[in-house]
Fold these 2 entries.
Entry 1:
Amino acid sequence: MTYLDGLNPAQKEAVLHTKGPSMVIAGAGSGKTRVLTYRIAHLMHQGVDSFNILALTFTNKAAREMKERIGKITQPGEAKNLWMGTFHSVFARILRAEAEKLHYPSNFTIYDTQDAKSLIKSITKEMGLDDKVYKTGLVMNRISSAKNNLLSATAYCNNTDIQAEDRQMVRPKIGEIYKTYEQRCFKAAAMDFDDLLFKTNILLRDFPDVLYKYQHRFKYILVDEYQDTNFSQYLIVKKLGALNENVCVVGDDAQSIYAFRGANIQNILNFQRDYPDCKVFKLEQNYRSTKNIVGAANQIIEKNKDQLEKEVWTDNTEGPRIKVERTLTDNEEGNLVANSIIETRHNKQAQPQDFAILYRTNAQSRAMEEALRKKDIPYRIFGGTSFYQRKEIKDLLAYCRMTINPNDDEALKRIINYPARGIGKTTLDKVGIHANQHNKSFWSVISAEDLATLSIHAGSKSKIKQFVTMIKSFQALEKRANAYEVMEEIAKTSGISKDLFTDKTPEGIARYDNIQELLNGVKEFVEEGDDDEKEAIVLPDTVDGEAKNAKGLAIFLQDIALLTDADQGNDQDTNKVSLMTVHAAKGLEFPYVFIVGLEENLFPSQMALNSRADLEEERRLFYVALTRAEKEVRLSYSASRYKWGNLIYCEPSRFIEEIDERFLDYTAPETSEPFANERSNYFERSGQSKANFSAKSKSNGRSKTNKMGSKKEDKKVIPPHKKMVNVNDAKRAVDPSFASAAGKIDEGMRVEHLRFGKGKVTKLEGDEPNKKATIQFDKMGEKQLLLKFAKLRILKDK
DNA sequence: GTATTATCTAAGTCT
DNA sequence: TAGATAATAC
């Protein structure tokens, strides 16, 4: 039983309780993954066949990591039949195996977000709807949340509440779009991300024999990050676990950060309701972080109302305080981080891989990247525009998709005229109209006699025929060749390789390289031996009866849409600084963590300011960010930042203020009275939500300004849109006369501050570079400012 | 039908 | 800023 020795009593209890439902509430850094892996190992140790265990994780990254850990503590090959993966990948496989029950082919395509958006867009266009009203993103969110709540298109249209909501939003046609969307996906033999869960529910609901089969198969079910499951996922788990009730869910309500995707903390409560005798374990000892970090994190999360009771504590050392730093621009913030990394590496003998830079939005990675590149610090970006989402990769994959599933309309639309082969918009429109009228896929129109009946130029027709012949040749090849051979042939014959090769711009070269990289990846896939870990997630008795070519394109393509950058295999040089969004960092840990861009309207996101629930999710997100760190956290914010090419003036995040000073180490402008100015902004901010609110109601067409306008005396309140200064105003922010005056300032001078206005310097103290000035501002009262940061302009001597 | 240019608009987080 | 789309010239 040596493998259990490393567990603390609470962990051990959770691991040993294998029979019956259980729930593990695991605080950040309390060894949640450890419990899951040991639990699985323990099950197998007790004689449970890995064949009967299903472990569901939230990301591929988590699945892969856990697989590695299990591999280390079990006998070789023992975990071979273990099913472990994300909800999406596991059920995609089950759906492929059972596809014909739902009248889908097993080689159905998985539409990614881009595909889905493009389809929605063409539907709204066809319906003659204004795409400014029916924004694809909005429509998609609506459809997505309907699916996650198990509402089909018909149910959506018949639901009076929803219809009323849509009418109120002045978007009454969403239900109709949803219906068409569903039909189009079906005839294209495609499922989107939400369908993978939705259709699994349909499958388990309508086919008791299938349900029975998988209930028997999955005698033990484990779910990681349970707080982030949505209703659809919750119900799948509930159904599969109903027979044996050996369901173990692990989660932390404080780390629920996917409500935007339909995740529901309610599921934790549902679980206790569904299994009243479920055993609850709480893991509260944090092994990851210093006392200081745990203390700050606890304090942050305390501000939230919605949470389960638990107290995270640690035995670790105190550790240094959290450093808070401010810069003037986002690029400077990048330099600050880069320099800190160099410094820490030097002082603490740290490796690049010991550092993570976390941000709220992917767009922020750029400034960081540039700074790191300049200083020759190796880094790796997770997420963002994934490799598989690059245009050239998607183009090539679209050919592959059509080879496997020619009815894949989105793939067809993408490539029928790329590289240009004279099949233009007019032609494609005609095909599309015919296809939709007859409820067929584009392919079934152009590859059949239908084509002859269409009023298309003979020249275009013959070009279409050539295209059809080409795809058919790929299909023939796919039957006998491996994935690499097929894809290489496609790249060559389609003209993609040539098209990119002739493009000698740096972008063109990069694209060509990416294609080569994809081909290399496929080659690896074909050449790699059967390794146990890879096998673990493949359906052992799959995929369909006809014993498909295991190295074939179909298998390679299977769930490429579900992969992200983090899942790429090239692990050779992992000694790099990690850059990622806070969301992507969930479940990971690093000795040194930088959380950047801590500014109002960014973190918390501007869109979260309107409701308490949204703001609490942002706060949980910040909690997640803080608790990633083992030794040190550094927070930074910038006074200005480029957004959409415009310079935006930024305020520090409220989250900084929410941390007690005893956990912090300021290098901020106002050392003696931290956030004196920010506090005054806080006042502004409290009015901001009102401004927001009235602005919002206005845009709704129904003016509530009267109701909100009672607070007219708040005239000093700066509405948010004013805070977002435009380019002209912003030029003042970088006006050199404001920036460079610091050294020359003396007592008695009249100065002007960008924000506080005019005032008189009454006192100077301290030495460079931390010289501090006390200034009596005409309107804002007395402030103490650090000269190196204060944006002051000298007005007149004495 | 294609290539080039001008204009628009988006970036919130992930499977 | 950058990619996507619309307008324009060829």
Entry 2:
Amino acid sequence: MASHTDIAVLYANKPLDTQVTVKAWVRTFRNDQFLAVSDGTTIRTLQIVLNKEEHDEAKLKKLNTGACISASGILKPSLGKGQDIELIADQLEILGECDPNEFPIQMKRHTLDFLREKAHLRFRTNTFGAVFRLRHHLAFAIHAFFNERGFFYLHAPIITGSDAEGAGEMFKVTNLDLNNVPRTEDGGVDFSQDFFGKPANLTVSGQLEAELAALALSKVYTFGPTFRAENSNTSRHLAEFWMIEPEVAFNDIVANQDLAESFLKYCFNYALKHGREDLEFLQEREINEDKLKPVEDRQSMPLIQRLEFVANNEFERITYTEAIDILLNSNHYKKKKFKFDVKWGIDLQSEHERYLVEKHFQKPVIITGYPAAIKAFYMRMNEPDAQGRETVAAMDILVPGIGEIIGGSQREERYDVLVQKCKQFNIPEDHIWWYLETRKFGTCPHAGFGLGFERLIMYVTGMQNIRDVIPFPRTPLNAEF
RNA sequence: UCCUCAGUAGCUCAGCUGGUUAGAGCACAUGACUGUUAAUCAUGGGGUCCCUGGUUCGAGCCCAGGCUGGGGAGCCA
């Protein structure tokens, strides 16, 4: 027999008139009689009713917000209006006291930036409880989606000797004595004495490794931490984040879009089904927070409706060239409201993407066929268009409020073309000889994409800052916890 | 890295044109009440006004530099 029962289980089963024990943390103690406690198994709190005569007064004094308690008694239908069950406790034990003069979390609205500085305690709040339960559900949804479709979960290395991925600045991994770095004759660092005998870094992407596996196992995906040493200070970037990268042999760019779209819809539906109460809470929270904002900054649709809308509607699919035409023909452009110029060949700026997604289409948009010059070396070259312009089979999925949530492509599988691209992008062949060899030995068309897990969570939870959807955010100058 | 806004009680904030002893709500303490729902009511304690320097008879307020945080941009997922 369990030593105690989860509050989520009590609400699910409602074992009325039976003896139960709960272990949980105090949220409020009202009227010297009503204790609201949470054990984090659900967004809901349990009301514990304490008959004053049965409990030591000194003990009742310790029922401060944040204290940990164990309570036993009979579960009864509640006489009050805020809940349908309550525990009439005859036994109460304080497992861990909580000094109210020092505990920073109160039963009142805190700003998210304040709670960010209390990352070790913010799990105790309703908002972060809901966010991290949903983070769990989404992680589970990702594995379920791929597993149901015959994908194999591939663990790409976190330490990599490859520096050719080109996805951003990398963190160096070394065990050299930094106070006494060995030098080569020309004064550089002598990496031959380092742990791997060569420079090593934390991975910025598992894609290249996933491609190697896909060219044998057909369908694989990675899901793991990824690191970028960029000095990015935005609400959408982390130095350490989790990425999902499926890679599929024999898929072309259209099949890649189909996979990505069904993947996102699956995740949203899974969250709606398994995280409903948390989503309802976050929706209420967002509505209340929106009241403090100017009208133009408020959400046009409540959170759950937004997720249902995306889950039930086709994504818009356009080419880069069409996107440029839409922008050039927009009133926004004609009134010169874009800060950055629009013409074929530019990399789309945030303001352009926002216009397309939030103003023009008002739904997720998949853009394909980007100019070859602004995309990565491994993306498959398309035939030049009527005007002789070179594009690649790339795709970005943009969603309202977040911007780019997925980036992917069909990969260049033709050896000669890929070698040529390496030259153009100044990537030494001997750095990625192993990648090139897959194009020599039984190459095939294949495609894949990368998805930032935290951006997915942002979209599902409605949280506006990426630092609030990962337990311990790593950003420039911040690794306290 | 750039632009921009902010930093006043444990938290959220107000503080006028530079002027006497810096305020409110919540939280906390004490008491009242006892089926409450972030309970309510009364009373009370609580301040390095981010830091350093400057201007001034006088700075929370003005100026310079710095630190920290938010928002936006770039880079991207």
